Amino acid sequence: MLLTGYREEIFRPACNNAFQSLHCIAHLDEDISEALPYLNAVLGGDVYIKAPPSVTFKLSGKLISVHGDKIAVNALRDEAEARHILDWLKGQINDAWEERGTITPKYDGKAVPHILEIYRLLPKSNCKKCGQPTCMMFCSQAAHGALGADDCPAIADENKEKLAQYLRQFRFD
């Protein structure tokens, strides 16, 4: 077993305490850097960074970033959901490490949308109706799968469909 435990830190985002969702950072008891390419191969990470190694993927509308020494998860309902996801990830990490002899490590991620392509379709009004401070921040969240075309209340119907089609080509779920 590579990862024996973690200490979780669960909090509301500092940028907007009115958000209903929670964020979680789990500080890992062991460095799991060597397991990340195997975890990426098993879970199909959206983004893989080689140095320092990390893998980021989307799971049920949440962005999860796994680093050698920590795991970050956003958009959680409550502490129980955070612990459930962290325990599941701990199992996935340990399984990938135990099976590494039969897994081809993967050192890259999936193709991701271009932020400027998303921005081109938005109203560029920075209206904040989506919960983001700017349209560019909305683009960043959409490029990583946290937001979609339906999450921008101010987008024109024609552009909403174009954005949905554009984002669909990057989603495999």
Describe the fold and architecture.
The protein is globular, with a radius of gyration of 17 Å. Helices cover 32% and strands 20% of the residues. The protein starts with 5 loop residues before the first strand and ends in a 5-residue tail after the last helix. The chain is an alpha+beta fold. Helix 1 packs across helix 2 and helix 3 (115-121) packs across helix 4. Strands 1-2-6-5-4-3 form a 6-stranded antiparallel β-sheet, covered by helices on one side. A hairpin with a 2-residue loop joins strand 4 (54-59) and strand 5 (62-67). The protein contains 5 helices and 6 strands.
Write the layout of secondary structure elements.
Blueprint: E1 6-11, E2 22-28, H1 36-43, E3 47-49, E4 54-59, E5 62-67, E6 70-76, H2 79-98, H3 115-121, H4 135-143, H5 157-168
Antiparallel strand pairs: 1-2, 2-6, 3-4, 4-5, 5-6
